[in-house]
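Re: the request from the purification team.
They wanted to know what the chain is likely to look like in 3D before they choose a buffer screen. I agreed to run a prediction and write the result into the notebook, where they can find it.
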Amino acid sequence: MGSTAALKAQFNLASVSCFDGKPYTMHDLLDWDFHVLSLPEPEAVRLCRDLLVYYADRAALGIRGEVIMNFCGALHANYLQNPYHNFYHALNVVQVLCLLLALPDVGARFTPTDFFVLSVAALGHDLGHPGFNNLFMQRNQCWPARIYSNTSILENYHAASLLQILRVPHMDLFANMSDGELDSVRKRLINAIMWTDMAKHFDMVAKLDGKIQGEMVLSEGIMCTLQKPYLEGLLLHSADISNPLLEFDMCRDWAIRACDEFFNQNKLEEALGQPPFMPALQSFDEFCIAKAQIGFIDFICKPLFNNLALMFPAQLGERAAQMRKNRSAAAGTAVPKRLLAE
């Protein structure tokens, strides 16, 4: 990945190139209907590059374009071809993160360099994901589980993988920073990625609940009172699980991919004589996918996004309404076909 020629060879570019065509703009990305899964791979890598170039230029970081492109190529190469946890998921997360950073009072908490750092965290937050969750890694004592003592196993692995890429000179986005600045950036990358561990989800929601209940007047101003490390984690985690906020076809596309990956884990666990981590996903069909969607929305997404919609009704009220529509649409298919026939 050390040269433009190597990248062009990887993508076998003909008429379409990562380096040609109109660059993606922030206007393109600040749209809830932007669907990254519609992009061919060269375009997806170009989107990654254009986003980082935009934030790097705003922060005047002085990063050479070739370094950014090398980094994007390395990200693409080190995301596995999983149904869900892949390079496109990383792009989806960073795109939604851009939307959240544009919320009133949120962007004001961050410097242009912060925007760049958080974007890098989003792009690398699932780097090298094996397609199995922390429970599987712990249960089978896979080597990352042993290294990280069964604590946020994959999140630690993703953060370490990202930092390893950033240590390569021709991919080092932060080479122009002082040692002190670099140490701060690394800590923030790790902290933000750690918050994507689903084991931390309910603590995160409870903390936000407490903050909201303690306010006399509910407004986006609450964001100004949140500690910055928590806020960074909140934004990245929210972007990570934001699929139910999308228009139904996009939401369902991601749900099918997630269930495909989970069902593959169920099958492997069965082959290993282990109980499936998701017993409700008994088969990979419309009925089970719909049930999984409903459970994810009800128990994970609604408590978080309803709170955020209360704080940002003008910006996120419509997304919360879309989540409810998606839940209702899923409920319409979460009926066994045998019952529909009766």
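For the purification team: The longest helix spans residues 286-311.
Please add any questions underneath this entry.
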